[in-house]
Design brief:
Helix content: 25-40%
Subcellular location: Cell inner membrane
Strand order of the largest sheet: 3-4-5-6-7-8-9
Largest sheet: 7 strands, mixed
Function: Converts adenosine-3',5'-bisphosphate (PAP) to AMP.
Strand content: 25-35%
Organism: Chelatococcus sambhunathii
Structural class: alpha+beta
Number of strands: 16
Radius of gyration: 18 Å
Catalytic activity: adenosine 3',5'-bisphosphate + H2O = AMP + phosphate
Membrane topology: Peripheral membrane protein
Shape: globular
Length: about 280
């Protein structure tokens, strides 16, 4: 069965180089002008989404020719996954609405998954060239489009922070709220609540700039896997409200996730477990 290299940092850097190339295609689409269509689920898909996905899929196929790629815009045509199979989860342009609106908080997300768990991942913001990379450990760096991709010697280690129950910073989606998330946050009572778009919320958790990111509304596996790899490598957890680690590769729901919470401090995840479970009940 196909697998990945043992060096998770090297694998993550390979994914970062591919994300770097995809980011350049996204910026080219913005500069040249692009068309947008509405998908069956009501979400937008732009020419930039397709250009980035085409680049990523091709690059992954060349680097890992026997490993399946599950990517947002082509997931319906993907071959079934075997139990324990290694594969990639790709969101070629997370935050398409922000991209179409002229914003900068859109990302490229790529994760490598083995036996249902992400072992390496990258989140890249093409607009400013930032990268958050999760492998054996977690790192941040900058590599603008047009220059070289991220290199190992330029990586800056990042870690989640210990949580102070009286001084929590919670993150919420800038565009996708839901009553269960609101109930959880009301019960948790963080000192500060911040909004952010796309997968950037995982980056803030991993870098020790925030403590918790709950999402009880619907997401897809490619929205979360790279962030899970990053937060986990930085010392945190991404779990269900019942405290179970997320797993990836189940196709029965069309690659949909259930509710999840990203925790910077595993001790906070344990202490707040009753609040998390109660957040699912009206």
């Amino acid at each position: 069965m196909p697998s990945f290299p043992a060096d998770a940092d090297a694998l993550a850097l390979t994914l970062a180089a591919i994300a770097h190339g995809a980011g350049a295609r996204i910026l080219e689409s913005r500069a040249q002008g692009f068309a947008t269509r509405t998908k069956d689920d009501g979400s937008p898909c732009s020419d930039a989404d397709i250009a980035a996905e085409t680049f990523i899929s091709g690059a992954l196929a060349r680097a890992f020719p026997h490993v399946s790629v599950i990517s947002e815009e082509s997931a319906d045509a993907a071959a079934p996954l075997g139990e324990g199979q290694a594969f990639f989860l790709v969101d070629p342009l997370d935050g398409t609405r922000d991209f179409v609106a002229g914003g900068s908080e859109f990302t490229v997300n790529i994760a490598a998954v083995v036996a249902g768990r992400p072992i390496a991942g990258v989140i890249h913001t093409p607009a400013d060239g930032r990268f958050w990379i999760g492998g054996a450990a977690a790192y941040a760096t900058t590599a603008p489009a047009g220059g070289p991709p991220p290199a190992r010697h330029n990586l800056r280690p990042i870690r989640t922070r210990p949580a102070s129950r009286e001084g929590l910073t919670a993150l919420a989606s800038a565009r996708h709220g839901d009553p269960e998330t609101d109930r959880f946050l009301a019960a948790l009572a963080p000192r500060e609540r911040r909004s952010a778009s796309s997968a950037l919320k995982f980056c803030l958790i991993a870098a020790g700039e925030a403590d918790v990111y709950p999402r009880f509304g619907r997401t897809m596996q490619w929205d979360v896997a790279a962030g899970d790899a990053l937060v986990s490598a930085a010392g945190g957890l991404v779990t269900t409200p019942d405290g179970v680690r997320l797993t990836y590769g189940d196709t029965t729901g069309g690659f949909a996730n259930g509710p999840f919470i990203a925790w910077g401090d595993p001790a906070l995840a344990r202490d707040a477990a009753p609040i998390a479970a109660a957040g699912r009940r009206p």
